[in-house]
Specification:
The structure is a homodimer. By secondary structure, the first copy, chain A, is α+β, with helices and mostly antiparallel strands. Chain A has 2 domains: 4-142, 60s Ribosomal Protein L30, Chain: A (2-Layer Sandwich), CATH 3.30.1330.10; 149-314, PurM-like C-terminal domain (Phosphoribosyl-aminoimidazole Synthetase, Chain A, domain 2), CATH 3.90.650. The first copy, chain A, has helices at 4-14, 62-78, 100-116, 166-177, 184-191, 197-205, 219-230, 248-251, 257-263, and strands at residues 23-25, 32-34, 40-50, 83-93, 119-127, 132-142, 157-161, 211-214, 233-237, 270-274, 285-286, 289-298, 303-306, 312-314. In chain A, the strands form 3 sheets. In chain A, strands 7, 8, 9, 10, 11, 12, 13 and 14 form an 8-stranded mixed beta sheet that branches.
């Protein structure tokens, strides 16, 4: 079994320093010390990823646990339009999980850090009966450029990146038959989601988005968060929502692509609003990530769904709610 | 039972915004956005405080859990000489703990935030089978003024603030007979430790300290951390160490004040080193917090203790090690 010191040393080796001119003191002191650039603001976010709440030991490979913990947290920076800089890793581990399991975890997290451009600058290590991590992510953004949840206005277009429901489909498949029975591609979005960092920065920089949030709890729930922050309502067209396509082997399970797209969590796509006049300037994709207009912001504070037959109904928030029984 | 939204609203109400000119976006968006001042560096630290690892539901009042979680984390800023600014609260709670228990927790944490000058700017909420929090604290410090662990040099004096072993005594008493059987004063240091923020800033600003660490794991362990970072050794004089005084009712238990002071954790006093020439300029106390010279840094990489009879022996690190069986 590893000591705390050995664990910290192994962790540090997996996260070599990137070219971070602003980093003055990294891992190993009481706190990290960094020097902010001038003319920027900092975005700060924190996120827990816990065994038996967010992942299961028997279902989720350690690489995916490490990767996804960092991806989820970093997605909050994407939703502000911020550029990732640093992260802090607070780690709770059972003594028996400090060996091979932790190596896999580190491998996945190190890949995520490289992909997202994040430097590990500090953390905390403790034992626990279940594994859990808490990540704090720090990003920068040019002054006044952060895209908040609160800027949506009536008449704005509602847009979404990528395809919705893929992560929930992956979870449903995994829970039914474990990771080895399905094609990797079907599980990819659930195990290895991609925070839409480039798109978020593009939307912030070009000033196109009036409001933005990442879809972590599910479209029906996160759209409600955005509308409540902005003091508006929304109307979605079911036919326009880019829904997961069920593969043959998954069709028998009886899943509904629209339900998966509306209420499935963990997609980490971006949901954002634009002034209507931007529609003709909007590219169909940014660096390969498709953008789809799925509805519009309305003055009335209700969330409405127009179905394929043209009928309008209230859309309840049925996504992830941690304290629901 | 509270929903996540209700929990976040209750939490936000307990932490009113302070005069934080640099805060642009607080609780409720994907990330907080803050604007760093010019000419400063930022200190970043993260710390977990978990049920059954760091506290026990039946032994520790919820107010003390909330207070101490924030105090422990903030102590890392004190040990750099930084001024507290913002914090992020990541919260894992059993559904049944979201009512009265959480109110007490918030009360204690809000008192700590007011005392330390910290503004809550964001967080995360999730359910869990056991309660746990992770705190990320952000402080600022004038450029180049942070006091690191790595600056101790042979011949430097080793100093400590306050009295050592009081927190461990409190824990031992609590574990024996619960919180209501002892005078509050005996338990205060264990339940409501005081991060030495003013002293840390004073030592950083006046340039007196060559190295500094807070005593969270115990003197014998934290002195080793400091010496390893600095590439030096240390010699302590047992007689000089400001040891806890055992009250009459606690003497029967058979505790040794020297052992409590050397190996007891959770005191959150500051351990720091000074050039020898500073000794005559050193006040006996800073804002009521006593300072004591307890030893000196030596070239040889050993940690030695000189006992009351003048005998010198190796001092093993017997403080807190999370992964020790």
């Amino acid at each position: 079994m590893a000591s705390e010191k050995q664990l910290i040393a192994r962790t540090g080796r997996k996260f070599p320093l990137r070219s971070s001119a602003g980093l003055r003191v990294g891992i190993g002191d009481d706190a990290a010390v960094v020097r902010p650039k001038e003319g920027v603001e900092w975005a700060l976010t924190t996120d827990a990823f816990l065994e038996n709440v967010h992942f299961l030991l028997r279902v989720h490979p350690p690489e995916a646990v490490g990767y996804k913990a960092l991806a989820r947290a970093t997605s909050d920076l994407a939703a502000m339009g911020a550029r990732p800089l640093y992260f802090l890793l607070s780690l709770a581990l059972p003594a028996g999980r400090t060996g091979k399991w932790y190596d896999g975890f580190l491998e996945g997290m190190a890949r995520a850090a490289r992909t997202f451009g994040l430097t590990l600058v500090g953390g905390d290590t403790t034992r626990s009966t279940l594994a859990g991590v808490n990540l704090t992510i720090i990003g920068e953004i040019d002054r006044g450029q952060a895209v908040l949840r609160s800027g949506a206005r009536p008449g704005n277009l509602i847009c979404v990146s990528g395809t919705l429901g893929e992560a929930e489909l992956g979870l449903q498949l995994l829970q039914r038959r474990g990771p080895k029975k399905w094609k990797k591609e079907l599980l990819r979005k659930h195990l290895y989601p991609e925070p839409r960092l480039h798109l978020g920065q593009w939307l912030a920089k070009k000033g196109r988005a009036t409001a933005m949030i990442d879809i972590s709890d599910g479209l029906s729930t996160d759209l409600r968060h955005l509308c409540e922050s902005s003091g508006v309502g929304a109307k979605l067209w079911a036919a326009k929502i880019p829904k997961v396509v069920l593969p043959g082997e998954a069709q028998k399970i009886g899943l509904d692509p629209l339900r998966l797209a509306l209420d499935g969590g963990d997609d980490y796509e971006l949901l954002f609003t634009l002034p209507k006049r931007m529609q003709r300037h909007l590219p169909r994709a940014v660096r390969g990530v498709p953008i789809t207009v799925i509805g519009e912001i309305i003055r009335e504070k209700r969330i409405l769904l127009v179905d394929d037959a043209g009928r309008t109904r209230n859309l309840p928030a049925r996504g992830w709610e941690p304290f629901r029984e």
